[in-house]
Amino acid sequence: MLSVSTLRASRLITALATATLLASAANAALVVRSVGNGVGAFPVGKTVVAGTPITLTPGDMLTLLDGATTRTFRGPGTFDLGRAAAQTTTLAAAATALDSRAAVRKPRLGTVRGVPAIAGPSLWDVELDAANAGPQCVVDPANVTLRRAMTTTSRTITIAAGTGKPASVTMTMGAATAKWPKALPAMGSFTLTDSAAGKRSITFTKVPAPTGDAATDAEALIKAGCTQQLERFVKGLETGKAAGDD
């Protein structure tokens, strides 16, 4: 049987270890943008602990998300997470960076009382006019929106999955959005034949519903490989606007 003093010592060690882990987590940040030839040691998704030297060469750019701010470091130079960066953006104005329409119902990402939700596109919309870059993350495969930038003409998109029966969606003149067909839940891979942009493929990946924690939500996009949506997410945080809202 352990003595009282031994039990107390064991509890103290456990408490100190827990405190150390919590302190480390509080002083760590997630890499959400990594651009340039000298950023190989800091890929997107890496966790950087305060005190780690960040050495960048000319043209390099590194954006970190620490749960309270985004910090952008630009080379050349050697930087420290704990010190001021070239650009620091608080998340207080980024309440709608994930989904502006859902934010009307449930504020997220640092929403403060008195700050109105911004109407605009959702991070989860399929951007028809954007370059096809990796998977498309979705939260609800039965509720997906197609979005286009130019609305001066009508546009038809035929959607096919494997050998199954295709479905078509028509966007009339002036319409910026259309719903993904209910007959084809947005799961797996599809071929889109677009009357305005030709053929493209798209692969949907389901991710958990947003938690309201910016770092956790960014990690979900990173793990799923949804790089295009991650970039829109980060831009939304930096500008304090809904992702994709111009």
Tell me briefly what this model is.
This protein is 22% helix and 28% strand.
**SS-derived structural category:** alpha+beta
Mean pLDDT: 77
Q: Major β-sheet, in short?
A: 5 strands, antiparallel
- Which percent range fits the helix content? 10-25%
- Could you name the CATH topology of the domain at 126-206? Immunoglobulin-like
Strand tally: 15
Write out key terms for the chains shown.
246 residues, alpha+beta, Immunoglobulin-like, five-stranded mixed sheet, 4 helices, 15 strands
Would you kindly provide a written description of the structure presented here, covering whatever features stand out?
This protein has 246 residues and is of the alpha+beta class. Among the domains are: 25-89, no CATH class; 126-206, Immunoglobulin-like. It has 4 helices and 15 strands. Strand 4 (61-65) and strand 5 form a beta hairpin. 29% of the residues are buried.
Q: What is the topological layout?
A:
Blueprint: H1 4-26, E1 28-35, E2 47-49, E3 54-56, E4 61-65, E5 69-74, E6 77-79, E7 87-90, H2 100-105, E8 126-127, E9 136-138, E10 145-147, E11 155-160, E12 167-171, E13 177-179, E14 188-194, E15 198-206, H3 214-224, H4 227-239
Parallel strand pairs: 8-10, 9-15
Antiparallel strand pairs: 1-2, 1-4, 3-6, 4-5, 5-7, 10-13, 11-12, 11-14, 14-15
Helix pairs in contact: 3-4
